[in-house]
Specification:
Strand order of the largest sheet: 4-3-2-1-5-6-7
Number of strands: 9
Helix content: 55-70%
Shape: elongated
Largest sheet: 7 strands, mixed
Distance between the termini: 53 Å
Strand content: 5-15%
Radius of gyration: 32 Å
Order of helices and strands: EHEHEHHEHEHEEEEHHHHHHHHHHH
C-alpha cells in the first residue's frame, strides 16, 4: 500500500513505529439540490482530496503518522469520502448502523428507499474496495434514529480528528451530520467542517476548524504519540514503508520490550534484596555495637559499617524510584504481551475489541489503535482455512515451549515455592525470636540471684537474636510482597485452569464464528491478567 499523501517522511531513512491517526467523517446525503450538474461531484472530491492531503501539515503529523478513515457509506458525501480514500490508498473502516443488506435496502420514515438501485450497486462496489479494511455493525438498536445516533457516537469515539462535509443550508436530522458536529464539539475532538454551496455554476467551499488554529497550525494540538519506550524503536530497514505489515514490525517491538522488561525486573529484584539485606545487616551491627562499649576500635568499625550499609540501602532505594524501575518494567512487559497477543491472532480477520475494553493506561491507546488498524489491514483478504489458523493458534499460543499453559503452570509452581519459603522463614524466625526472648527473661530472673558473668554474655547474645530475628521475619514477608508472590500464585493457578478448559473448547469449535469468539475470550483473559498485574506492579515498591 502506498504512502499517505501529506505524510511524507521529513528525513529519508529515519522513521519510528507507524502511528495511525483516525479520521472520522460524516456528510450530507445530498450535496446539491435537484439534478447534480456534470462534473460537480468530481470537483467536490478534488477539494476533499486537497483537504485530506493538507491535514498532515495543519495538525503537525510526523513522518511515521498515517491516516485511516472511519465513516458510514451513505449516498452523497460518504460516497465522495470513500472514493477519495480509495484513490489515495488510505485504509478505511466502515461503521454501519445495521447489517449490509438491511442497510442498503432500508426505507426512511417517509417510505422512500435510502438507496436507488444504481446507488446500491455503487455502495456495494465501494464496500468491496481494496481500501476497506473493516466492515462492522456498531448498533443493535431497534429504532432507526437510535441506530444512526449510535453509529455517530462510535465514529467519534474511535476518531482522533473529525471531518464533516455539509451542504449549505442543510437541515439537521436526528442522527445526522449536524448532530455529529454538535457531539464532536462536546467531546472536544478537533473538527474541520467544510460547507459546500453553489456559485457561478460550480461548488463553493468554506472551511471552519473548531480548534485553536494559529497561522495554519493547530496550536496546542498534539497528534497521537507512542509512549517513550516505543519511541526508542526504529523500524527495520527492510520495512520502512509507511504502513508495514504487523508481522514484520511487532517481533522487533516485542524483542525490544521484552529485553527492557527483563533488564529492569532484574534490577528491581537485585535492588529489593540489597535494600532489605543492608537494613538487616545494619540492624545486626547496631545490636552488636551496644555490647562493645569497652571495645572502642571494634565499635568504631561497626559504626562505620552500619553507616555504609544504611547508605547503600538508601541510595539503592533512591535509584530504584528515581529510574522508575518498577513502572517501566511493568509497562515494557505489558507492551510485549500486547505484541504476543496481536501476533497470536494470525490471519483471523477480527477486530481485537479487547484492546479497547480492557483498562489500559491512556497513553497506550495510540499504540493499541495502530495495532488494531494494521491487523485489520493485513487480514482483510485472508487466504487459508480457519481450521489451520486454529491449529497454529493452539500450538503456538497455548501449547509448546513458549505456550501460555506451560508458562502459567511453571510460574504458579515457582510462585508457590517462593511463597512457601517466605512463609517458613517468617514462621521459623518468629518462633526463634519468641524462644530467645523467653530464655532471656529466664536469665534475667536468674541474674537477680547473683550468678556468674557467663550468663551475662549469653543474655546479650539472646537479646541480639530477639531483635534481629523479628527483622528477618518481616524481611521475608516484605520480599514476598515486593515480588507479588501471593497474587501471582493465585492468579497463575486460576489462569492455568482456564486455559486448559479453553484449549478443549477451541479444539471442539465447529465454525469460524465460534472459534473467533473463543479466541477473543482467551485473549481478553490473557491480556487482562497482564493489565491487572501492570496496575499492581506499577505501584508496588520495596517496603
Amino acid at each position: 500500500m502506498g504512502m499517505t499523501e501529506g505524510s511524507e517522511p521529513k528525513e529519508e531513512g529515519l522513521r519510528g513505529l507507524p502511528q495511525v491517526v483516525h479520521l472520522g467523517f460524516a456528510g450530507s446525503r445530498r450535496l446539491f439540490d435537484g439534478v447534480v450538474p456534470e462534473g460537480y461531484l468530481e470537483r467536490v472530491e478534488g477539494y476533499l482530496a486537497e483537504v485530506i492531503g493538507g491535514l498532515a501539515g495543519e495538525l503537525g503529523f510526523e513522518a511515521h503518522h498515517f491516516l485511516c478513515g472511519i465513516s458510514q457509506v451513505a449516498i452523497g458525501a460518504d460516497f465522495c469520502f470513500t472514493r477519495v480514500l480509495a484513490a489515495k490508498g488510505i485504509p478505511q473502516r466502515i461503521f454501519l448502523p445495521q447489517h449490509r443488506d438491511e442497510y442498503l435496502n432500508a426505507v426512511g420514515s417517509a417510505g422512500v428507499a435510502d438507496f436507488s438501485e444504481e446507488e446500491r450497486r455503487e455502495a456495494m462496489r465501494l464496500l468491496d474496495g481494496e481500501q476497506v479494511i473493516q466492515e462492522r455493525v456498531v448498533s443493535e438498536a431497534a429504532d432507526r434514529r437510535m441506530r444512526f445516533e449510535g453509529t455517530n457516537i462510535e465514529i467519534i469515539r474511535h476518531s482522533d480528528v473529525i471531518l464533516c462535509l455539509v451542504r449549505e443550508g442543510a437541515d439537521g436530522k436526528p442522527g445526522g451530520t449536524l448532530e455529529m458536529i454538535s457531539r464532536a464539539k462536546a467531546w472536544n475532538t478537533p473538527l474541520l467542517t467544510v460547507t459546500v454551496g453553489v456559485g457561478d455554476g460550480g461548488p463553493v467551499f468554506r472551511r471552519e476548524w473548531t480548534w485553536n488554529l494559529k497561522e495554519g497550525k493547530a496550536e496546542g494540538y498534539e497528534p497521537p504519540r507512542h509512549p517513550e519506550v516505543l519511541r526508542e524503536i526504529v523500524v527495520p530497514e527492510d520495512h520502512r514503508e509507511l504502513m508495514p505489515k504487523l508481522a514484520d514490525i511487532l517481533p522487533t517491538v516485542k524483542s525490544h520490550a521484552s529485553s527492557d522488561a527483563l533488564r529492569r525486573s532484574g534490577f528491581f529484584k537485585v535492588a529489593a534484596r540489597v535494600i532489605i539485606g543492608t537494613h538487616i545487616l545494619a540492624t545486626m551491627c547496631a545490636v552488636v555495637g551496644l555490647k562493645l562499649d569497652s571495645w572502642k576500635s571494634a565499635l568504631l568499625f561497626l559504626l562505620l559499617l552500619e553507616i555504609g550499609l544504611l547508605s547503600w540501602g538508601y541510595f539503592t532505594h533512591y535509584r530504584l524510584h528515581h529510574q522508575e524501575a518498577a513502572p517501566r518494567w511493568a509497562l515494557s512487559r505489558l507492551i510485549a504481551e500486547i505484541c504476543r497477543s496481536a501476533l497470536a491472532l494470525g490471519k483471523l480477520h477480527v477486530s481485537p475489541e479487547y484492546l479497547h475494553a480492557l483498562p489500559f493506561p491512556a497513553f497506550l491507546k495510540p499504540f493499541l489503535r495502530t495495532v488494531e488498524t494494521l491487523h485489520l489491514r493485513d487480514t482483510r483478504r485472508r487466504v487459508g482455512d480457519w481450521k489451520e489458523i486454529r491449529e497454529q493458534y493452539v500450538a503456538g499460543r497455548l501449547r509448546g515451549k513458549g505456550g501460555q499453559i506451560t508458562f502459567y503452570e511453571r510460574e504458579a509452581a515457582k510462585a508457590n515455592r517462593l511463597l512457601g519459603i517466605a512463609g517458613k522463614t517468617f514462621e521459623v524466625c518468629s518462633r526463634l525470636a519468641i524462644a530467645a526472648t523467653v530464655i532471656k527473661m529466664v536469665l534475667v530472673v536468674i541474674l537477680l540471684c547473683d550468678v556468674g558473668g557467663g550468663f551475662v554474655v549469653t543474655k546479650g547474645l539472646l537479646g541480639m537474636l530477639a531483635v534481629v530475628l523479628p527483622v528477618l521475619a518481616v524481611a521475608a514477608l516484605s520480599l514476598a510482597a515486593a515480588n507479588d508472590l501471593e497474587a501471582r500464585a493465585h492468579t497463575f493457578e486460576e489462569m492455568g485452569e482456564f486455559l486448559l478448559k479453553q484449549e478443549k473448547r477451541l479444539g471442539a469449535a465447529m465454525s469460524e464464528r465460534e472459534y473467533a469468539r473463543l479466541v477473543m475470550e482467551t485473549e481478553t483473559r490473557l491480556l487482562g491478567e497482564t493489565v491487572n498485574w501492570f496496575s499492581r506492579r506499577s505501584f508496588t515498591g520495596v517496603a
